[in-house]
Amino acid sequence: MEFGIASNLEKRKKADLLVLPYWKGKNKPEGAATISKAMEKCSSGPIQANDFTGKESEIIIVYDETFPEKRVALLGLGEKEKVTTEKLRRAYCSLTKTCRQKKIQDINLVLPTVASMDHKGIIRGVCEGLLLANYAFDQLKNHSLKDSPTVLLTKVTLIGASQHDLDQAKKYAGIAEGVYFTRDLVNGNADEVTPQHLAAVARGLAKTFPNIKATIFDKKRIEKEKMGLLLAVARGSAHDPAFIVLEYKGDPMSKEHTVIVGKGVTYDTGGLNLKPTGSMETMKCDMGGAATAFGVILAASTTGLPVNVTAVVPATENAMSALSYKPGDVYKSLVGKTVEIGNTDAEGRLILADALAYTCKHLKPTRIIDFATLTGAIDHALGAETTGLMSNDDALAEELLKAGNETYERLCRLPLYEEYRDQLKSEIADIRNIGGKGAGSITAAKFLEEFVDKKVPWAHCDIASTAFLAEARRYHPKHATGIGVRLMMQFLEQI
Ligand code: BES
Ligand code: ZN
Ligand code: ZN
């Protein structure tokens, strides 16, 4: 989707639809451009008849042959005094969905204005609502057999906008590219999106963008690095594991270095502790953390963010075969710590343990943030609205919570009290990979904490309930959401 601007309504070009903003309780549309008497007139009918009240996300389309667009959408934004960036996202998401139904591709949109909110927040709400909803995953459908591909918006002209507004809109479009990239990777077939495919995607990014560098370890090198936990999980799979380091240097002079570690389980069968029917079908989503990490690198590079950020992805399938790693056996991690396997379905923490330890040892991180579809328990605690946050550093956690509120990719922090560590005691090894009955998300994070250098600020985001949705919600499509990309872009901008 491409953004354009026109300083006023007279300067606009022909399009499929004209969108006028409308605040609840007002008697006419109002926005950043002077709306003509003719436009007011064509909307006065539905307003006076109370067919349109302007409540948040309400849309009505009226027709007037005299306008170049012929169709005019009145878009309700709710009460002017109560508007927020998030409410705008939702309203412009609804608009995008209406356009899709009507196969509208090119729109002229009068920007809303409101004194109580900063202009940046308005542009952000409008653009993000449009962009995040403007996505469809059609790649696995055969269009010659059934319905034609989804019609998406291709052009949005912001009327009453400045060049500065356009620059901002383009930045959000760049970030959305990262979100789409993440969604596509997660939505792809697990049989296609293998560890080798993730490695190829990383190489592709490095080839396209001069400030991105990819380093990929194959199985031999992973053995040489003694990543015993990644190797254990990978044993049951027909696909070799890969260990991927993707660096973006937007500030080469600085030593500041944020590392995003992403869980890259390309399919999680549970291993020998096989998942039951009903729990396995969505497990192509288990590389969601990896996809988020890649999405951030892409978004940082396209928007030219002046920071240094690296994605570290341990990639493997958790499959079941005669070679699978075994419950009850003990495996040695990169740092030498031994792990008793209580359950082969708790595989994410194993591969992340080696990745976190590798990061601390070799990459000189200023901070580490990991993203992982780690536990089913986080869904019981927080559901699909909120990502679980756990951290060894208050300042880092605060900064992430703030970024969560700004982007509405909200987080809730759970404690890492040392008493939870007791659940991971093993009689035969240094640690066990599962805890007891309660606090499943926290004990998973306590396991990870063991492999992070205590001096390094680290945060863990459990996205098991937010990365992949059974049903669409607002501007999050059904299935992959791409959660974490906007959050991290905001975070990196903040620090
Ligand atoms: N990949 C799953 C977690 C998951 C569940 C992600 C639902 C997305 C949706 C993870 O590897 C897993 O299986 N965790 C187990 C841990 C348990 C065996 C301690 C779980 O949460 O049940
Ligand atoms: Zn699992
Ligand atoms: Zn998993």
Describe the protein's architecture and organization.
This protein is of the alpha/beta class. It has 2 domains: 158 residues, Leucine Aminopeptidase, subunit E, domain 1; 319 residues, Aminopeptidase. Helix content is 34%, strand content 20%. The strands form 4 sheets. Strands 7, 8, 9, 10, 11, 14, 15, 16 and 18 form a 9-stranded mixed beta sheet that branches. Strands 1-6-5-2-4-3 form a 6-stranded mixed beta sheet, with helices on both faces. It has a 3-stranded mixed beta sheet with strand order 12-13-17. It is elongated. The site of one zinc ion has 5 residues, from loops.
In short:
This protein is of the alpha/beta class and 495 residues long. It has 13 helices and 20 strands.
Using the coordinates shown, work out and report the CATH topology of the largest domain.
Aminopeptidase
What gap, in angstroms, lies between the N and C termini? 29 Å
CATH class of the largest domain: Alpha Beta
How would you describe the shape? elongated
Looking at the overall shape, the CATH architecture of the largest domain is: 3-Layer(aba) Sandwich
Q: Give the CATH superfamily of the largest domain.
A: Zn peptidases
Number of structural domains: 2
The fraction of residues in strands falls at 15-25%
Mean pLDDT: 97
